[in-house]
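Q: Hi! First time asking for a complex rather than a single chain. Here are the components, and I think there are two in total. Is that enough to go on?
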Amino acid sequence: MSTFPVTLEVRSSVKPLAWAVPAALLLFALPHAIDPYQTILLAYGLVMAIAALGFNLLLGYTGLLSFGHSAYFGLGAYAVAFMVKYLHVQSLELLVLGAVVASLAVSALFGFVCVRYTRIFFSILTLALSQVLWSLAFKFFWVTGGSDGLRVPTPAVLGRLPDPAEDKILFLANAYYYYVLVLFLACVLVMWVIVNSPFGKALQAIRDNETRAEFVGIQIRRYRFVAFLVSGAFTGLAGALWVPLNGLTTPDILYWPFSGEIVFMSVLGGFRTFAGPIVGAVVFNYLKTSAVGFTVYWQALLGAILVFLVLALPAGIVGTFKHLLLWLRKRAFR
Amino acid sequence: MNLLQTTQLTKYFGNTHAVDAVDFAIGEGEVLALIGSNGAGKTSLVNLISGLLRADGGRIVFRGIDITALSVHDRIRAGIARSFQLVNLFDQLTLLDNVALSIFSREGMIGRLLSLANRYRAVWEEAFEILRQFGLETRSSLLAGGISQGERKLLDVAVAYALRPKLLFLDEPTSGVGTREKAPIMDVVSAIVRSKHITAVVIEHDMDVVFRYSDRIVAMHQGTILASGTPDEIRHNEAVTTTLIGAPDA
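A: Yes, that's all I need. Here is the structure of the assembled complex.
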């Protein structure tokens, strides 16, 4: 036994602020330094980061790989489109609220079925259920617009409708960007608290060892179900924020390759880290946009880049960065 | 009155009678060793009582309550905890986290979603104190996947102990560790169990450990109880010596 005095060291919850505060300030300042198009691209990235954060609560923290998160993203987007088209709702706050409630309802239904299974069975079930929603969006064209989708005009933000004379691009790059940014930061904060709460520790315990988790008194299915709900709500919120940016929702965002993109964002950034999915989402968004602008064979180019990145950075961008920092720190103290 | 009593407890795996109408009892404060050759039904019996397996027949009464149909969660609430033959830990969490999870669960705080775990200072202090009792405090901030097998065995028991059980099952607490490590592990575990008056059932193959640390020994063979008695009685029980131990020294 050690003769050195040993004291309790509980990890500080404030430490990550050293990274988070400068990053948030940078995100607030960026629209003043980059052009509106780049700002809108960043807004897309932040929206996808909310979806990836939600997704990673299941993959990184609970050990469940969902191949069906397009369902909740698409549901959020379609809920907004339906409310605009059929209920003539213009307030973005109401649209977001409606989308989150709809996502929660469907993730409760899907989650009830899916959390009974793990590993490949869970993944296939989530995939199959998401494809049910995709086929409904595709076939019920008199309600959903079919492959043409549904248009969504610019909504009223904080009770203020955009001036018809106002340039939509400038609106999206200013008022809407900051709206997305505030919600993004709120989502990061909430998710940070969740994964560092006793509940978050329980999810990590389930991920590491389901049998032992049960034998410390954790009710596995109940906790997985709550994680599934939170994950669905985050992804639904992302879908709701995405559709005014895009101006249109189509069944593409309910289709399985879109679920694959969400998986990829998390893996690219590093699903073993909290910030990984955020970074992965923003980087993936830029990569995809650049590839589309570069060649008509953008899928092939993107695939090649992504394969290279996964092989070169198996821990993801943030994971590799953390390893590098650790290595440098060790060298400095040698 | 017995703390735990099973009546005609039965478990089949196909045609194999893993546990065959077993009447098993343990009194409060006892440290009982469960011995038997591989396949005798020791672990199956513990799995049935702890809730990992469902019984095909019979009853389990714990502190006067029939727990046969209760879930694992409810049995833990009732006061039953266990460690595992093959160490079951949360390998990507620290030793402190591993123990703290049991405390959060025991205190009914594990479901708290919107408050930081670090705020519950008392939980972390208790977790650290438990690690100190098990001699693991210097390793508290390491990941459970990165410590030695002997330390993992101790941590496995510490995680179960943190639930403050009335009845603790220790499934081969010294298996897979070197001969020299066995006694220190059992010394620590035994001291804690006895000082806290915890009733314990130890499954063990090492007869030195069994005879040294237990008050009573139950020998199992082919799903049934072969004999029950003090270490001295078991040492001289003909059926046990013939079947399990071998002839006592002259």
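A: Chain A has one domain: 34-332. Let me know if you'd like any chain examined more closely.
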